[in-house]
Design a protein that fits this description.
Structural class: alpha/beta
Number of domains: 1
Distance between the termini: 26 Å
Enzyme class: lyase
InterPro entries: AB_hydrolase_1, AB_hydrolase_fold, SHCHC_synthase_MenH
Protein name: Putative 2-succinyl-6-hydroxy-2,4-cyclohexadiene-1-carboxylate synthase
EC number: 4.2.99.20
Number of helices: 10
Largest sheet: 8 strands, mixed
Pfam families: Abhydrolase_1 (PF00561)
Radius of gyration: 17 Å
Strand content: 15-25%
CATH class: Alpha Beta
Length: about 270
């Protein structure tokens, strides 16, 4: 489904019936990230998967306005209004988790529970943000100069995704194909304007979120385990689950465990 928000056209995939659950993918992903998950949850939930700007089939002008975190959150609010959804649970992975968290801070009345998979509230200090923004700019330039295939080769080798080498060749090819279906222009703009260095830090606002929060991390993803532990102390109502034999992309590496954890959380915190 194509939903227009100002000059952007968002690709939104809606499946299933039941209480609404918004699904937000990570950097280089798309709504395809959630296809298997949606098939498992469609009998109990209306699943709203959104291609974020610069990704999948969403098309947006390649300027800063359409990629800034606050404006992306405003667009998600607009999408929910157009779909007549007053409130939903949110599940975000990595970049999608940053987005889901930002949305929960900015539009709390729309969110009844929050699931963050391998996500963060941004970077605490200006110095950290400046350093990250510089590195994101360098990577964006690499994508533009070298092309999507060479970037994907490089991206697959970063330590964050080391554990994905344990996946079957078919699974790895599926993930690679999803990445390659994006565009150099879209990914570059996403890095420049929606990257961790560009977004505001929400660390100081975690204590205003009163809804139930589930933080999920993989045992091999030490960086995000540490972040989740710090976040848990600041949220009013959060639990942190570490899934064994998994790295950053838990929904791919340990799908059954991931599904069970998410389902139990949603049932426990059901508002219906």
């Amino acid at each position: 489904m194509d939903i227009q928000v100002k000059e952007a056209h968002y690709n939104v995939q809606i499946t299933g019936k039941g209480s609404p659950l918004v699904l937000l993918h990570g950097f280089t992903g798309s709504t395809a990230t959630w296809k298997r998950f949606a098939d498992c949850f469609k009998n109990d939930h209306q699943l709203i998967a959104i291609d974020l700007p610069g990704h999948g089939l969403t098309s947006a002008p390649l300027n800063e306005h359409y990629f800034l975190m606050e404006n992306v959150c405003e667009a998600i609010q607009d999408i929910l209004d157009q779909l007549n959804i007053d409130q939903a649970a949110f599940l975000g992975y990595s970049m999608g988790g940053r987005t889901a968290l930002a949305f929960s801070v900015l539009y709390p009345e729309y969110v009844n529970s929050l699931i963050l998979e391998s996500a963060s509230p941004g970077l605490k200090t200006t110095a950290e943000r400046v350093d990250r923004k510089t590195r994101d700019e360098k990577l964006a330039t690499f994508i533009e100069n070298e092309g999507l295939e060479r970037f994907t080769d490089k991206w697959e080798e970063i330590p964050l995704f080391e554990s994905q080498k344990k996946l079957s060749p078919e699974q790895r090819m599926e993930i690679r194909s999803e990445r390659l279906r994006n565009t150099t222009e879209g990914l570059s703009a996403s890095l420049r304007y929606m990257g961790t260095g560009s977004q505001p830090s929400y660390w100081s606002m975690l204590d205003v979120i009163g809804i139930p929060v589930l933080l999920i991390t993989g045992e091999w993803d030490r960086k995000f385990i540490d972040i989740a532990k710090k976040m848990k102390k600041l949220f009013k109502n959060a639990e942190h689950q570490i899934i064994l034999q998994a790295g950053h992309a838990i929904q791919v590496e340990q799908p059954e465990k991931f599904d069970t954890m998410v389902r139990e959380f949603l049932v426990k915190n059901s508002t219906t």
